[in-house]
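Problem: given the chain below (55 residues), write out its structure.
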Amino acid sequence: MGWLMGGFQMARGQHYFSHTLVSMLLAWGISSLIMALFMKEDIVFMIYSPRLEGE
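Solution.
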């Protein structure tokens, strides 16, 4: 949604591409950090859990 709004503002001439890109990267980075902090055990389980037959 933010990317769409940034594109609209760029089309109006009210925003720069670099600002939209940096805002997107910051939002992605903060979201990833929060997920890593609060879902640490779930992520490790998903990566290292053995696969059951039939999956």
